[in-house]
Amino acid sequence: MPISGLVITTRSERSEEVLAALRLLPDVTVGAAQGRKLPVVTEAPTLSAARKLTEALMRLPGVDFVDVVSVDFQDEEL
Amino acid sequence: MAEPGTSRRGWQLAAACVVAVAFVGFFTGLKQPPVVAPVRDTGELGRGADPTPSYRDLRSRDRGVLGDLHPSQVQRFLDAVDRTPPKGPPDEQSFTEAIAAREKTRAYWGAPPSIPHQVNDTRAPDCLTCHEKGANIAGKLAPRMSHPRYDSCFQCHTLSQDPRAGGKPGIARENTFEGWKSPGHGARAWDGAPPTMPHPTRMRETCISCHGPTGKVGLRTSHPERQNCVQCHASSATLDQRTSSSDTPTGR
Amino acid sequence: MQRRDFIRSSAMAAATLAATRLAAEESSAEAPREVDGVRFQKAPCRFCGTGCHVQVGVKGGKVVAIQGDAKAEVNKGLLCMKGYHVGLALYGKDRLTKPLLRKNGKLVPISWKEAIDTIAERIQADPKGFAMYGSGQWTIPEGYAANKLVKGGLGSNQVDPNARLCMASAVTGFLSTYGVDEPAGCYDDLDNCDVLITWGNNPAEMHPVLFSRVMDRRSRGERVKLIDIGTRRTRTTEFADEYLEFKPQTDLAIANGIAQQLIARGAWDRDFVEKNCAFREQDEPATLNGKEMSFEAYKQAIASYTPEKVAEISGVPAAKIRMLADLFADKSLKITSLWCMGMNQHTRGTAINNLVHAVHLLSGHFGKPGDAPTSLTGQPSACGTVREVGTLAHALPGGRVVANADHRKHAEEIWNVPAGRVSAKPGYHTVEMWKRFSTPKDQGGDISTIWVQVTNPGQTLPNLNQLFFPSRKIPGKFLIVSDVYPTATTEHADLVLPSALWVEKNGVFGNSERRTQQWFKMVKPPGEARDDCWQLIAVAHRLLELGNEGMKDRDGKFLFHIEKDGKEVPIWDFAHYYDVNVDEHLFEEYRKFTRLKHKDLAPYEEYTKARGLRWPVVQQKDGSWRETKFRFASFDDPYAEKSRPIDFYHSTTHDHRAQIWFRPYEPPPESPDKEYPFWLCTGRVIEHWHTGTLTMRIPQLRRSMPGSYIEMHPDDAHELGIGNGERVLVESRRGKLELSVWLNGRGRPPRGSTFIPFFDETLLANLLTLEAYDPFSKQPDYKKCAVRIRKVG
């Protein structure tokens, strides 16, 4: 069960829209926004699902960049 | 409609021509078409396949036929890619060669490459036939595209040969531009540490385009089984235009 | 589970820390990025009107790399082949580096002093006979300075730009429909539309970044329907769901056909029209604003444009006209129309512009994101420098016109020049200006000197044999050209001035979506090449020295007086030109003009930080500056009355209404006949920008399309015994040209039609074209004339 810490950079004027979209995603936990930088934690069943989820976040309207801060996939063996 | 036997033979002949013409298209840079043995296939080829092009079509499509490959032939080229991973990291010479080869088709490091072969200028590009996954066409590697799918290939990629049927070229004037060169290898924090990315990730999101089996030998990874490249190889925020910091991991 | 909670919270802690760090870095002022000794700074691309931002990489005083600017909303990091290679445009080996004067038939190097003196003396000798021929590639400060020099200084209005040949009909279309120029929508419409209609437009080649902005939505699984209405198949057609091929000029019938169906079916948006629109038709004698028309009269007038009749006129099947009407009748769809030269370079250009606006207004497909009629421009600052700064023969900055006494007074006040300085008499529009330059003085040719900046009329004027070449043989006519390379115009010039190009100078452009974009000088121009704006100011100052009173303001100061620390900066001396930011001074002065028509610009400083801002840019209570995406829509436009969803606050009838025009189809001035049986259309290709002065010097682009050609239908070629690649002689009533035929080439014209790109200076397409122009916009029609073709040897 890989858990990743990401920073999403939003277009400032679309931050609300991005937040609303993220809240609809069950596998994404949103932290406290720092300006247009949004820390989030994602959980996914497999590594490839984690990557797909990250890519999906990049494509969200209003998202400029997604930076991967940490990926933990130790649980994968479990 | 001819009887099945005739039609089958006709199809094989036509398929052979398609391939032959395709090769001619690919090697037009050499001007002399290489001799290509006709492809014979004893399998159930043609079942459910698209109708073959007529001879007339083939004649009129004497340029840029890469995209005219019969769908059933495409898989051969995709399968022809040798996916055996290299035994170790590439040597310095092949790395230098790979960088030099890249420079030939680019105005500067980071410019979109020009298309080194002829293409069919009349149609929306069929570039993805080969470049979506990468292919091996008679020993020449068609690299897999390094960026997500965009639909308008000719928006960025220039042709390297006159596409017109004839006509004089306009006045050719010299240009003294000297483009940015690749800084070479990524920096390592210490000996044995995974190198950082010496290039932007923008338009190079698909690492295996260059570092996988359809990439140039000197750029291929020694560990293609590890799928998540960014796990160990850090990208550069500066190159990726995320920050304005001059602190960059790029270095020789 | 506990372990996962721990991992999750430590992941969040790490992400939050990273976010905080990144946010802190971002809030500090943007310093240039530096990578591997290459310094990157933002600039808008030098080429088309899309207005992409690039990151220009400079090392050792030279541009060495270009990146798409990831922070730019227009292009989101992507460019086209011209944009990626724009840096190479500076480094053609034959850059002009010295002023050149024609002596005994040869251009010989002279000093800048002699050059500036020569121009000033010519002007001083015959100020009324002097005209500036400018450009949609002028930066905003350059165009503003030229306008001020001629209109505020010389007191004549002889300034007209090449944009007259490019988007004048779009201007008259907007003015007569909404009472104010420039699109209401913006590129955001492209992200939201369900249907995109290209009217005689090939954005896949001409505005590639905008085109892929729409088409790439398909790769993301979105449905976007593309309807290509054109006179020849192009790369855009390859992406189209529907291709409607019409006979040249009959786009008017097609638009009328849609309107007829909307009315006949009762499918027009009654609520929208009743609240926001009125009907309009041509008056006698014809004026741009026409006369009022009742709905009943409109209904009656449009009634004859049944799908069957439209099919007969246009060649587009009646079912396809009904299909278009179905789309416009469907209020759940968002429809964006795009057009560029196909509708503008048209002897009925104003009319077809009116009609496309009419179809959108009548159906209510207006003012919501994705619902917009949007014209595109071909030049990077056709909007900014020509339409907004008003570098047209009848205009003053900020949407003002010389014919209006109040407008002249505003200009005189802002320029601080004596009352009465600005003349009420419009100057000559482009075709007229060049016609008079090519006519001897005693036969009415009262223009004796033309100073051309940043454009290439020797290649782009229509019917060159009438408008350009004759002047070169008439004594007393003097042609001055400021450019960066030898061109088809400098070749015939009497005086050539070497100019700085793009990031060799400071600049400001305004793109197609009302976005004003600034950049700083990054590298030095080669040799003695100097800024166009400096050239204008230096001539103005020389005129002042020669005693020209027009170069003084009311207080006796120089027209381009700039002070620093209480002392005048001698900006006319190039050594001191960059002691101050002249661009900023001119821009701040120009900004005062922008309020009248609600085209408010922010202070210069704001543009140094942004990747452009779309006007009106209005200051908020917290001091920040807010741009406007959707004009006239009260949810976004601060000037729209909040009580109305849509407010046309510059209505020509002063009642908040836009005009739905009735414009009948009329045949073109020249059609194919027995003698000249083929249509000729001219245009561009993706590789080359306009006359190829820059792009033909970029090896990657030249290799990709090294020369001109003529496209024709294979069956026509077959009948004439012409094979692919064979040479033909193309003749019109005005000139002839020998080229090679390309069958099934880049574009594919229908039977009876041909196409020639105009970028090749060795094969001048405009030897053939017709100089007939639209009665309102005075924009010539480069898209249709009659030619004959015969095989040569």
How would you describe the overall organization of this protein?
The complex is a heterotrimer of chains A (78), B (252) and C (793). Chain A is an alpha+beta fold. Helices cover 28% and strands 36% of the residues of chain A. A 4-stranded antiparallel sheet of chain A has the order 2-3-1-4, with helices on one face. The longest helix of chain A is centred in the C-terminal third of the chain and has 13 residues. Chain A starts with a strand and ends in a 6-residue tail after the last strand. Chain B is globular and about 60 Å long. Chain B is 23% helix and 2% strand. Chain B has a two-stranded antiparallel sheet. Chain C is an alpha/beta fold. Chain C is 30% helix and 19% strand. Chain C is built from 26 helices and 34 strands. In chain C, β3 and β4 form a beta hairpin. Chain C is globular and about 70 Å long. Classes of the chains: A alpha+beta (78), B mainly alpha (252), C alpha/beta (793). Chains B and C meet through loops of B and α1, β1, β3, β4 and α8 of C.
How would you name the oligomeric state of the polypeptide chains in this document?
heterotrimer
Percent of residues in helices of chain C? 25-40%
The number of strands of chain C is 34
**Beta-strand fraction estimate of chain C:** 15-25%
Element order of chain A: H for helix, E for strand: EHEEHE
Number of helices of chain C: 26
Please tell me what the overall shape of chain C is.
Answer: globular
Strand content of chain A: 35-45%
> Which two chains form the greatest contact, residue counts included?
B-C, 60 and 86 residues
First-to-last CA distance of chain C: 86 Å
How would you write the strand order of the largest sheet of chain C?
A: 6-5-20-19-18-7-8
The helix-and-strand class of chain C reads alpha/beta
Gyration radius from CA atoms of chain A, angstroms: 12 Å
Query: What is the CA–CA distance across the termini of chain A?
Result: 8 Å
Structural class by secondary-structure content of chain A:
alpha+beta
Helix content of chain A: 25-40%
Overall residue-averaged pLDDT value of chain C = 96
The overall pLDDT of chain A, averaged over residues, is 81
Q: Name the overall outline of chain A.
A: globular
Give the number of helices of chain A.
Answer: 2
Topology:
The complex is a heterotrimer of chains A (78), B (252) and C (793).
Chain A: E1 3-10, H1 15-23, E2 28-30, E3 37-43, H2 47-59, E4 63-72
Antiparallel strand pairs in A: 1-3, 1-4, 2-3
Chain B: H1 4-26, H2 55-60, H3 71-79, H4 92-104, H5 128-131, E1 135-137, E2 140-142, H6 208-211
Antiparallel strand pairs in B: 1-2
Chain C: H1 2-27, E1 33-35, E2 38-44, E3 53-59, E4 62-68, H2 81-84, E5 100-103, E6 106-109, H3 112-125, E7 130-134, H4 140-154, E8 159-161, H5 168-178, H6 188-192, E9 195-199, H7 203-206, H8 208-219, E10 225-230, E11 242-245, H9 251-264, H10 270-276, E12 277-281, E13 291-293, H11 295-302, H12 307-314, H13 318-329, E14 335-339, H14 341-344, H15 349-363, E15 372-375, H16 382-388, E16 395-396, E17 400-401, H17 405-415, H18 430-437, E18 449-453, H19 457-460, H20 464-467, E19 478-483, E20 495-498, E21 507-510, E22 515-519, H21 532-545, E23 563-564, E24 567-568, H22 574-577, H23 582-591, H24 604-609, E25 613-614, E26 618-619, E27 625-626, E28 658-661, E29 678-683, H25 699-704, E30 710-712, H26 714-719, E31 727-731, E32 736-743, E33 753-757, E34 785-791
Parallel strand pairs in C: 7-8, 7-18, 9-10, 9-14, 10-11, 12-28, 14-15, 18-19, 19-20, 29-33, 30-32
Antiparallel strand pairs in C: 1-2, 2-3, 3-4, 5-6, 5-20, 12-13, 16-17, 21-22, 22-25, 23-24, 26-27, 29-34, 30-33, 31-32, 31-34
